[in-house]
Amino acid sequence: MKHSHLIIVFLIIFCGCKSSEKLVEKKETKQDLINFLFQDYIGEKPSASFIVVKDGKIRDCQSFGYADLENKILANCETNYRLASVTKQFTAMGILVLINQGKLSYDTRLTEVLPEFPEYGKEITIKNLMSHRSGLQDYSKLYPKDAEKQLVDKEVLNLLIKQDSLLFPANSNFKYSNSGYAVLAMIIERVSGKSFKEFMDKEIFEKTGMANSTVYLKDLQIKNRAYGYKFNDTIYENKDQNIWSAIQGDGGIYSSVNDYVHWDSSLYDETLVKTDLRNDAFSNWDENGKTDGKGYGFGWQIDIKNNRKYLMHGGSTTGFLNYSLRIPSEKIAVVIYTNTTDYGGLGRKAHFLASYYSDGKLPIPADVLLEKDIEENGIENSTNKFNQLKSNTTKYDIVENDLVSLGFRYMKKESEKALKIFELVKTEFPNYLGGYFGLAQYYKAKENNEKAVNYFTKVIEVATSENQRQIDYSKKMIKQLSE
Questions:
Q1: Can you give the pTM of this predicted structure?
Q2: Does residue 11 belong to any structural domain of this protein?
Q3: CA-to-CA distance for 72 and 468, rounded, in angstroms?
Q4: 70: containing domain
């Protein structure tokens, strides 16, 4: 996700019970459930819009809150939000269109299209750029954070041209790269002879019927535009722009949830590209090529659960947080767009909505039901509630990361609930670092440095090589808290 500078903390809750089962089995009114999911956006607050598409038809579309707080304009299903990194699926498709037209190939080298690029980029291919395996340096670390001028894609390219090395040899590693997608936008311009906006308008938006969608340009009048906000402890402040938010290829598309219906439809046929190219986008790519496993395709994160492929992508930039989810085997798509980054958990909301509209085919994210149960009945009996839910793993999807996340959300408002949740995760998943990480942060906030150090140490003990950021952070905290 774009510019997420936080330690990857994990997400949601733990607790569950027969009232939760009753909630689903007795079909507590759909609107009660949806209002619970989007309670943070109800009232005079920034907005959230979501849509559920099943079998090509809109099953539900709702909005909450305001697209424009200053002018009191409520959001609706036509509201245009900045997509942030949800943009990447569109940028990648733009490249696939050029490949479909015979103007590029997966193995086209970066320096073949951009000959001014330094020698260090000669091994980077189009495929490496789309799958985050280029090794390009992060533009956010190459441009002063206190700069006043907004960075654009061409200037990202210029910054990279001034470098003399990669973070790692091309295709030897995966590292999520906003730089790579800004460069892809420049490749689209160079190969097509059109601006990125002109190309996307003609080749993507017009062909799919996404009449509401556009690429951001400074001073462009965007119809039905949502503005981004950040809560500053007393009021919501307009935080619609920063120095990164004018970059197009990695996050600059504006679109509505209603337009996503047209996009989703085009991903089942050959409206844009041939089937084999489209399927390539939905497959993981590693150093050995295409695989059927979890990972990253071309603009899509890929997960496999119960032999089903889940295609996902989140997006985060100043004032906006978004999430898209497609489950092709069930012909279900859910997308949620918001104009504030103050609230998280969009992924679990999307998975819950997908499950709710799947006619019982997809397991229910247990943490969402458990959070609702905590809000209604308290946390005292959370262990028993969780045990009842985990006894039916076919019906309920229990994800450790999401359980920890709710704990972190409670840290801000009801820290004793957070403590209970972290303790539960630690007990139920002793080889998972999330509970220990949560407890370390809890005790750090309480200024109990001894306990915080003990739990940060435990994080390092159970962490794997995939958790290097948490390891580095824990080591840093141990040093600070021990002084």
A1: 0.89
A2: no
A3: 44
A4: 39-361
